Amino acid sequence: MNFTEFQNDLSSYEPERIVIVGLGNPQRGDDAAGLVLLVGIGKSSLSGALLVSAGTTPENSLQQILSADPALVVFLDACRFRGSPGEIRWLDADEIEDAGISTHAYSITVIEKYLNLEKPVECRYLGIQPGTRENGVGLSEEVREGIKAFFQQEG
After folding, report:
1. pTM for the complete prediction?
2. What is the pLDDT of residues 2-53, one digit of tens each?
């Protein structure tokens, strides 16, 4: 998965109706990957989408997300899906609970259910396979390289 493919996957939506939510804890190694991806997307050519840095508490951003009247909400987070560290890919909703998306106390599928109770919205999950989630360390080299490769344009 790379940024061009990501953009293509979102191209059927009006940019103003897309909300991209970065999740993670910057104090726990690769758990910060969703937040780092969000920053990179903010610097990219993807314009019009609302970017929300929700950290470890996406429930605190629910009103902001709903106020944007989204057709699509994309969650970015580190999660274990048996890939190589730094690998980035879409996860299906039924994979979320099994993949153990993030290390946070909430269930992201509960967040999705809440959003859909308020307003029908499509939710998608872009996961990045972490290498480490140790406290007090930065991103692993593998995850840094995976994020760098995500944003490199194909030639």
Report:
1. 0.91
2. 999 999 999 999 999 999 999 999 988 999 999 999 999 999 877 899 999 9
CA neighbours closer than 13 Å in the CB half-sphere of residue 59? 10
Q: CATH classification of 3-151 is 3.40.50.790, yes or no? A: no
Strand partners, 54: none
pLDDT tens, position by position, 24-34: 999 889 999 99
Question: Domain ranges in the chain?
Answer: 3-151
Matching residue, tokens 């937040």: 35
